[in-house]
Amino acid sequence: MRVTKYAHSCLRLEHDGGVLVVDPGVFSESEALDGADAVLITHEHPDHVDVAALTRALQRRPVPVHGPASLAGALGDAAEALAVVAPGESFTAAGVPVRAYGGRHAVIHPDIPVIENLGYLFDDVVYHPGDALFVPDDVQVDTLFAPIHAPWSKFSEVVDFIRAVAPRRAYALHDGLLNANGFGVLDRQYTALSGTDYRRLEPGTRIDA
């Protein structure tokens, strides 16, 4: 399986000729959706789903969009493509085995309602948690994409999350709000404290998983 990291929280997975795109949000490159056979959305926030770009892609090539039930309200006309996923469910998307975890977005502030959020484990190898720090306790994750910066996150909690998942390697995810100063500080600290091979990929970088 080949994984391409796009900006912020978007991944593109290519496996046995199938193309699966995860969280193509407004901070991500629209070309990530080109040729997609399926789309997975962790939750409804616009940095994880660019509804306009997704709608245009579906008009060109209708494909299933997998995500939590609450996503329907945000998708508008694109909601007809939604295949609802529940926590604990296993399914196949674009030929890739997927397991869904979690169910709730991390708390941003007590005054902000908590929405649905799903983490996705691909082929029992690659884990994308969306906007939550849910640790799968039934599998040894090989490759973790860890949300390193967000309004809802705290550095120490993310470090402890990476340590708890204990992957062979971890890559930065959810980094679209950072500048060069923030990258410098966080790259150094996560490398020192995460307990694994931590790296940050520039958008467009491909890895094999």
Describe the structure.
It is a single chain. The strands form two sheets. This protein has a seven-stranded mixed β-sheet, with no helix packed on it. A seven-stranded mixed β-sheet has the order 7-8-9-10-11-12-13, with helices on one face. The radius of gyration is 16 Å and the shape is globular. It is built from four helices and 14 strands. Strand 11, helix 3 and strand 12 form a beta-alpha-beta unit. It has one domain: Ribonuclease Z/Hydroxyacylglutathione hydrolase-like (Metallo-beta-lactamase, Chain A, 4-Layer Sandwich), CATH 3.60.15.10. The protein starts with a strand and ends with a strand. Helix content is 19%, strand content 30%. It is α/β, with parallel strands linked by helices. The chain has helices spanning 51-60, 72-75, 155-165, 180-193, and strands at 2-5, 11-15, 18-22, 38-40, 65-67, 82-84, 90-93, 96-104, 116-122, 126-128, 143-147, 169-173, 197-199, 205-208. The longest helix has 14 residues, at 180-193.
Task: Give the overall form.
Answer: globular
Q: Reading side by side through the largest sheet, how are the strands ordered?
A: 6-5-4-3-2-1-14
CATH class: Alpha Beta
Over all CA atoms, what is the radius of gyration?
Answer: 16 Å
Could you name the ranges where pLDDT drops below 50 across 5 or more consecutive residues?
none
The H-level CATH homologous superfamily, spelled out, is Ribonuclease Z/Hydroxyacylglutathione hydrolase-like
Helix content: 10-25%
Oligomer: single chain
SSE series: EEEEHEHEEEEEEHEHEE
CATH level 3 topology: Metallo-beta-lactamase, Chain A
Q: Please work out how many helical segments DSSP would assign.
A: 4
**Alpha-beta content class:** alpha/beta
